[in-house]
Amino acid sequence: MIEIRHLSKQFEMKDGPFQALEDVSLHVEQEDIYGIIGMSGAGKSTLIRCINLLEEPTWGEILIEGKCIFRRLKDVSDPKAEDQKFVRLNDTDLRKLRREIGMIFQSPNLLMQRTVEENIAFPLEIAGYPRSKIQDRVKELMDLVNILDKAHNYPSQLSGGQRQRVSIARAMANTPKILLCDEPTSALDSLTTTQILDLLWDINQQYKVTIVIITHEIELVKKLCSKVAVIDNTRIVDQGEVGQVLLNPSMEITRQLMRGKIGSEE
Ligand SMILES: Nc1ncnc2c1ncn2[C@@H]1O[C@H](COP(=O)(O)OP(=O)(O)OP(=O)(O)O)[C@@H](O)[C@H]1O
Ligand SMILES: [Mg+2]
After folding, report:
1. pLDDT of residue 262
2. Rounded distance, CA 152 to CA 159, Å?
3. Is residue 44 lining ligand 1, measured as CB closer than 6 Å?
4. Other beta carbons less than 10 A from residue 94's beta carbon
5. Measured in angstroms, how far is the CA atom of residue 44 from the centroid of ligand 1?
């Protein structure tokens, strides 16, 4: 579903390039719930933002469902070879890609002047969804995330968990194949976290959506994820089935993360 090959990302800074990711390769299969864990600043958000090209990789290759959406290879032996050519989507294809990949963040950036139902309708309006069908689709989505009773509330009139539900409904509006989640529960209490995780689980099971989730919470990985990758200082140092990576951690960084130092700057 998602294939990342030898991805590197440098940010150009005044005092020279800053390396945020180095030679990252990752394979996410359809219907996986794939966790990404690592210390603060390791490069997790940068990696997830590369998947829908919110961030352009410096080097590497990204394929979604077998289709190359980005390629810039460091070593090109034959510039004319199909599988070595530079690839960057045009604006139309990029918009189409973003409809297939929903994204949710730690703090949902909802439109404050719009109600819950208007927030959820927004991506449908942008995508040119038939006007007559928007209302039914919005109801369906509000039902999915169990927020029908707050349809007319504004974001300021919602709890943190409810706001996250709205952002999940919004991310699901265009029936994406992939849902990228950047620490969706780290601002929530444990009960609300469990509810959001249950919701993500249902979405994965019911709609066969592939989920990539960044988290600081090791318990979340154990509960929700089928696979996990550990990022340490720009590189993936461990990846595989959750049982294999976490129950018998081979890397010191994984053991550190499991001891609860996760997310700290140490
Ligand atoms: N736009 C940017 N310009 C320059 N440097 C950046 C930019 N975005 C991220 N970085 C740097 O890249 C590194 C990785 O950042 P990233 O946000 O991916 O970390 P993270 O693993 O998500 O951390 P956290 O757990 O704190 O969210 C950091 O050192 C950060 O300062
Ligand atoms: Mg981050």
Report:
1. 53
2. 14
3. yes
4. 13
5. 8
Question: Positive or negative CA dihedral for 43, 48, 54, 58?
Answer: positive
Phi, psi of 84 (to 5 degrees): -120, -5
Distance in angstroms (rounded) separating the CA atoms of residues 103 and 41: 20
Take atom 25 of ligand 1 and give the residue whose Cα is closest: 40
Q: Is residue 151 part of a domain?
A: no
Ligand of minimum distance to the alpha carbon of 42: 1
| Full DSSP string of 50-97 | HHTTSS--SEEEEEETTEEEEEE-S--S-TTSGGGS-EE--HHHHHHH
Q: Report pLDDT digits (tens) over 86-125.
A: 999 999 999 999 999 999 999 999 999 999 999 999 999 9
pTM of the model: 0.93
Is 114 domain-assigned? no
Residue whose token pair is 């940010």: 11
CB atoms within 10 A of CB 233: 13
> Which domain does 17 fall in, by range?
2-108+162-261
Backbone torsion region of residue 62, taken as left when φ is above 0, otherwise alpha when ψ lies between -120 and 50, otherwise beta: beta
Total of domains in the chain: 1
Q: Would you say how long the chain is, in residues?
A: 266
Tell me whether strands 33-38 and 210-214 are parallel, antiparallel or unpaired. parallel
CB of 20 within 6 A of ligand 1: the answer is yes
| pLDDT, position 261 | 52
C-beta of 46 in contact with ligand 1 (< 6 A): yes
Give the CATH number for residue 187: 3.40.50.300
